[in-house]
Input
Amino acid sequence: MNDAEGWHRLHPLSPVVRGGRATIAIAVLLLPTVLGGGRNQTRTLVDLVVVAVLLVLGFISWLVTRWRVDGDDLQIETGVLRRQSLRYPLSQVQAIDVVRPGLARLLRVAELRLRMGGASGKTARLAYLHEREVEPLRDRLLALARGAPADEPPPVPAVEHHLLATVPTSRLIASILVSDVGIAAELVLLGLVLGIVYAPSAAAGLASTGAVWILLVFQLVWRRFNQEYRLSVVEIPDGLLLRGGLVALTSETIRPGRVQAVRLVEPMVWRLLGWCRLEVDIAGRQRSEGEGQAQRRALRTILPVGSPAVADDLLDHLLPDRPRELSPAPRRARWKSPLRYRLLAWGRTPTCVVTQSGRLRRATNWVPLEKVQSLRRVEGPVQRRLGLASIHVDTAGRSVHAVIRDRDVEEADAALAELVVSARAARRAA
Output
C-alpha cells in the first residue's frame, strides 16, 4: 500500500505480530468466553471491551506509521501525539536482517531490520511486511548502500554463489551438551537427582529449588539451539548471507568491510574434539526496542561449531589479509599469567592485528586496523616488576577486546608505534 509520494504502509497484521505474547494472551482471554457460550454476560462484555480497545490501539499504531526510500535514506514516520520522522542513511548500514518469528511465519509476514553504524548505532525496523516484499526490498537497500543510483531499477534477487558452511543438527546438539551452558545444566540435573536420592526428606525443597535452576539453564540452552539451528553461510554479491533458526527464522547479510572484529573460540573440551566457534562483532547496537530475547545477542555467530578448516575458509572471506604467524609471549610472563601463559601470542599485517589468550578456553581475536578507534599501553604493578606491558586495541564494537598481553616493554613500545602508523594508513586506504 503506497501513495503518490512513495510512502508505504506496513502489513495490516503488523500490530498482531508485534504484540507477540500479548496476542496469545488475548486469545487465552477470549477462550473462556467462547467455550462458556456467553453465560457470564458481565465477564463477556468486559473481555470484549478489552479486546476492542487493544484492536483500536493496534489499528491506530498501524495507521500512523509509514515508510519510504528517499534518495539514499530510509525514512520512517510514526507517532500520534508526538510525530517522529526518522532518517537512516543507507551508507551507514552495517547489516540487514530479515527476521521471521513464529507468529510472523504463521501469518506470512517478516521484519526487515537495518543495523546502523555511527555514534548512535540505532536499528531501523520495518515490522512487518509481507514475506514476498522483504527479499526484493532488502536487495534494493543493499544496492543503494553500495552506491547504486536511486533511480536504478530494482535489482534482480541476489543469486547465491555457493554454500560456505552449515552445521549438522547432531553436531550442534553435541556441542551444546559439552559447552559451558550444557555442562552447567547437566551438573544441576545431577545434583538434583543425587539430592533426592540421598536426602528424600528434603526432596520437596530440592525439587522446587532445582526446578528454578533447570528452567533457567534450559532457557539458555533453548535460546542457543533456536538461534543456531540449521545455520548456513552463503556467499552472495553483497557479502555473506546467514540463515538459520528453528522457531524464529533469521536471514542476515553481513556486508564487506562492516566487520569490526572476529573471534575464534576453542573451549578445552572442544579442542579435544577438533571443534571451534567463529563469531563476528559488527558496529551498531544489536538490540532494539521491542525485540524478543531470541534476537538479543552481543555477537553474531557465523559458525556455531565446526572444524578449524571450515573456520579458516570463512576467515579467508572475512579477513583475507589476516596474520598467519603468531609470536609467543616471553617466558617470564608465566609468573604473571601461569594459566594462560602458553596461549598468549599476537601477530600483525599492514591491515590486521591478531591476539590470542585464554585460560580454560582459547580465544583468538582479529581486528582490521581500519576499524581501530584507539590504542592503549597498559603497565600494571606486577608487569612493571617483570618488565612487561600490554597493548589494548579498541574498536567501535562492544564485545571483542583484542589485547596484546604481557610483552617485553621494548616490544610493546615498538608494536604501539607501528600499529599507530599502520592503522592510520589502513583508514586512509579504506
Remarks:
- Residues 163-317 form one domain.
